[in-house]
Design brief:
The chain is mostly helical. It has six helices and no strands. It has helices at residues 2-15, 51-63, 66-76, 81-109, 112-136, 146-174. The radius of gyration is 27 Å and the shape is flat.
């Protein structure tokens, strides 16, 4: 069976007309003229990042929120899932502080009625958060400590998203 499959594959390759001589000039892919590909461009040495990759990594690092950096650095020093969870819980606390910060900042740029609407939305979000935490808590019963990390990561991500949403909302309002 393997020989038959191999034979069919070889026949298909030979008969498909994929050789350069069988293609007319309209069917060929356009090749850049007078450009040489240097060894540096095709280097597969991943130990030393290429200039473009290095720029992308630096850009990502610059755009990484300080809370995310602190969490990443904390986790990088550890080797147990429990210790990693502690890093995520610290990040969660920091994201909660961000939420409080932007709720308070929104008070200064909105009317009393608008701010009350924001507070009501925040109370509704807290109910949503509790429901989400309850829903993802089924992971705690799964076999393996990695699921604890996943659970904490999901919870932290939810809080982070709310903090970022409030920050964006605040930034829109102060640009007016």
């Amino acid at each position: 069976m393997k020989r038959l499959t191999l034979y069919i594959l070889i026949v298909l390759l030979v008969t498909c007309g994929c050789s350069k001589s069988n293609l007319n000039s309209d069917e060929t892919f356009s090749q850049p003229n007078n450009q040489e590909i240097t060894n540096q461009e095709i280097s597969l040495n991943k130990e030393e990042p290429q200039p473009r990759e290095k720029e992308q990594k630096e850009e990502l690092e610059e755009n990484l929120h300080p809370i995310d950096k602190a969490e990443r650095d904390c986790i990088a020093k550890l080797d147990s899932t429990q210790a990693m969870n502690e890093c995520a819980y610290k990040a969660m606390d920091a994201w909660y502080k961000e939420i409080d910060k932007y709720i308070n900042l929104l008070k200064d740029v909105t009317s009393k009625d608008e701010y009350n609407n924001i507070l009501e939305a925040q109370n509704q979000w807290k109910k949503y958060q509790e429901a989400e935490f309850k829903a993802v808590s089924i992971l705690i019963n799964k076999q393996g400590t990695i699921y604890q990390n996943i659970l904490v990561g999901e919870e932290c991500g939810l809080i982070k998203q709310r903090a970022q949403d409030l920050k964006s909302f605040y930034n829109y309002l102060i640009k007016e």
